[in-house]
Fold these 2 entries.
Entry 1:
Amino acid sequence: MTHSEPAPSWERALHIVLQVALVKEVETMDITTAVGRVLSSPVIATSDFPPFNRSSVDGYAVKSADVASTHILLRIMGTITAGAVPKAEIQAGQCMKIMTGATMPFGADAVIPAEDVEVRGVDIDVGNPVESGNGCTFQGAEYRKGAEVITAGTRIGASEIGLMAEMGIQQIQVHKAPTVAMIVTGDELVEPWVNPRSGQIRNSNAYSLLTLFRQMGVSPHYLGICPDSLPALSEKILSGMQDDLVVVVGGSAKGDKDYLREAIDGLGMETLIDGARFKPGGTLVFARRKTCLVVGLPGPPGAMRTAFHLLVHPLLRKMMGSRNPTPAAYSGIFKGSFTKPEGIEFFLAVKANFVNDKFVLEQTKGKSPESWKSWKSDDALVRIPQEVMEVKDGDQLTFYFTHPYV
């Protein structure tokens, strides 16, 4: 069992985790099945967009030079609907009625919204001057053929898929998702469908964590509940080591029945982190053997999820090819007061609300930070430095969102 250094800070632990994470190889996927994956190469525009000058409002296509002053009369020469191709060119003193998304007629360089004109039989009365480009989008205004429109390292979501569909792109190059095996330990645990006996509780950690993985685009292999036994835990970990990452929930503390360190040692793994200097969640273990990584997370739900968001989420993002796997830091104003444990960095779960152009950070009242009810309300972690003992109403603090898809 090898220790590279004393218990690290969160930033140092994150550095260690990301340093050993191996980016997965590339595969080709259909855009409709690539949700959550990360682009391995940039997406290049296959054509201009829009592919033609088009109206962005329902109105009248005009020559802007014709409406440089007030109350100009223009003759309506026809109607252009979306999908139709204009056959006539607008001449001086003319206009054409046009629908949103329709192709602009030749000669026209602006569209006046229908509500801004007065129709007088076959003419319109334009009350105010209109500039070129008003109410329309010119060809290539959004992007030109050959331009890079989505950078490598971007996580694929709905907007990226829509943009690629717009360009006619059907298949893309993405990094493979890492394979993850998950184990939950504890003699007191039973699965949700089992009626607990005295002293037993239902296994909620596994199903929360499985969901967090899936929200990232990772399909975990759940290896079930492992009893508090060194041989059983060693066997479970060994069975998961064909995957890129083995996540063990529970057994990472130093109690009489916490066997994770002994199991890692017995399997000949190199321990890179044996506890970190932050709370909650600092009683974690991080080890590796060849290309397989093992993360031991604490069993209490709040500690487990804090450690997941601070270390496991960035680890998986790096493996999936993200160029910026480190959690994005934001600044917000704290509401209320909180006294943290002495001499250690602390991450406080809060609700981040955007109010009057700034984030307001509020701790969930009357609920244990270890409860799922609290985590249901909270969506961020406030970072309280080691040297700070108390945060007060109005303090400006750094925080990190806990959405696993961010």
Entry 2:
Amino acid sequence: MTFAHGTHPFSTENVPALVNLDILKYLNAPVLYKDEALRVGYAILTPEMQAQVSNQAHQNRACAGFQVIDTTDIKTVAGHFEQLQSMNSKMQSQRFVHSFKTYNYDEQIQQAISQVQENRLKDDVTWMSSYKNRTHTDAQGNQVVTDLENKLKSLLQGTDIPYETEVISHNKTKQKSLRLRLIGKTKPSEIIVLGAHLDSINQSYFGNGKAPGADDNASGSANLLEIVRILSTQPQKERTIEFYWYAGEEGGLLGSSEIAKTYKQQGKNVLSVLQLDMTLFPGEGEMVIGNVKDFTSPRLWDFLEQINNMYLKIKLVDDKCGYGCSDHASWYREGYETLLPFEATTKTMNRKIHTENDVIDNRLSFKHSAVFSQLGLIFAMELSKNDSKVSIP
């Protein structure tokens, strides 16, 4: 795999990683540890193999496809698999629990989601995809972080909600992540997380250094901005709501892995995590979205179905994307409950991602994307209430 000037998106060194096992087997790559049930393998990926795994994940209609970890000690690696097995067992047990909470219609939520504006989403996607690239290994990869923080601060001028922004440095990538905290009124230590990755990638041979990443993932990043805009006009919520624009997702979930691991080590009480990664291409038709059901929480699937019936009334299609397809996997591995709604199914997703042609065109739909901002608003507003709880008792 050859990359154009300054856009090589992967580590130049060998990295230990958890990888979708089907991809490793397809590539005939050495698998040093595996779990057949989870379809996850452990391998040492050379720079060439990182590109091959990412490219194959893209061919299989997924992003990333691997998660870089911080150890080569096989006992520690086994511990990572035990974490995944434990979380998966916990999630599987939810399917047989009939105590899922019933959520009630809320007029304030209905009014909030009616404020989502397609033209604002288009403006934000246009702005973010105007950078030549947002590749995490490129110098310009941090310019967008600085500009995004300034945009957030401008957006939040005049809000009565106490908030904090923070640029987060990482060990495995020079790109930084950006966090916004809307601090909760009565339960500030209880956290609802909404995230999207801000980096872009071009894996085509003739890329000319361009990686506009309009759909992947200026779309999810713009959805978060629209959610913030509307929440900033609302009364302060009871729980803290955190927004992340992650660094280096395309390089192996680099930013989110470090963040989720730190939260676990610090004992942070994260109740639920929503990931928005690609929301613009209506591959199954407008108002038809995928509900990714591997490495996500059945309790949040139930939540999604309930809020859809009350507010959105779109069509949900069950799907899977394999391990490491987006940043939700980082949180899931650390024991947090996750939800990943997607623009279509993985079979019908946007084929122009990871190229210089991932730009705004007539195949994309901001009406379709607006649903994800609405969904994120409901997620944030409902789960930040005093009496809302989705984690397992």
